[in-house]
Amino acid sequence: MRCYCVLQHGQALQLVEKAIPEPQGTEVLLKVRAAGVCHTDLHLWEGHYDLGGGKKLTLAERGIKPPLTLSHEIVGEVVSAGADVGDSATVQPGRVALVHPWIGCGECAACRRGEENICIKPQSLGVVRPGGFAEYVIVPHPRYLVDIEGLDVAQAAPLACAGVTTYSAMKKLGDRIMTDPLVVIGAGGLGLMAIEVLKALGGRGAIVVDIDPVKRDAALAAGALQAIDARATDAVQQIQQATGGGARAVLDLVGATPTVGLAMASAARGGHIVICGLMGGDLTLALPVIPMRPLTLQGSYVGTLHELQELVALVKRTRMAPIPVTRRPLSDADAAMQDLHHGRVVGRTVLIP
Ligand SMILES: [Zn+2]
Ligand SMILES: [Zn+2]
User: Fold this and answer.
1) How many domains does the chain divide into?
2) pTM score, two decimals?
3) Which domain holds residue 143?
4) Residues, CB within 5 angstroms of ligand 1 (ion)
């Protein structure tokens, strides 16, 4: 089978021919039908996260080393399953499913709570284990297969990361997304997904902040209440005005020093900021601000299997609109990564083997 792999961080993805893996035990072999290209793939390709102040967290420190087969937004068709799977309907050959890629060790306290996404020994597909930039992929257990009957494969793939990341973050914000406009920083694939999920949940609406006018237009086309230029000198005042005196709910999908700074400056008293983006940097924080304003600053990392199942049910129930998707052949894997790296992608690119 063909795979497009990172053989060396920062170098072009390479075509590698491998044997089609044989599913063992509880594993399921899927033929990849669609594989989304995410910003996290860029971090994995580069090999590090920016911690700010010139410091970096390398993937090697986390035990992640090339060769890597990226893509954690996978839709596949069941080919075969290991001997321990049995003959459940989920693994009937030809069944098409969305893969929950945020898999844990299954044994630690987080996994036992159902929070495999924050496992201490993650086994995530497209990160630790091989992902979807390939013709076939192994999924460790059929429970990670989510039924997407009635949905388009390329439009469903981004639900596994862009979708569940924004959905999980919005759940953390609770009722305020119903009563107050949600400030969404970053109008890339996640930002557009956030607008659609918010609409599907019946939220008040999104005020989107981005530096790129093309992405702001895409956000308005998707139904954002307002789109604000993050680089405007009065961006803070514009957000405060749009939210009626300061943001009570902010979703930072960029997670860079200037965006978190903007979120904190434009938040209302009692504001709640959830950071999902991994662009990086650091922050010097005057601590009295936390109790005196009083702010909640929270992180959110992808989502749980249960949340992905809830999200797919929401999409089916509400006929939630998909984000703009550009389909490209698997052989375009490297070019698609480069386009994302250079900010040339609106919505999501999905590779089709
Ligand atoms: Zn675990
Ligand atoms: Zn992702």
Assistant:
1) 2
2) 0.96
3) 2-161+303-352
4) 104-105, 108, 111, 119
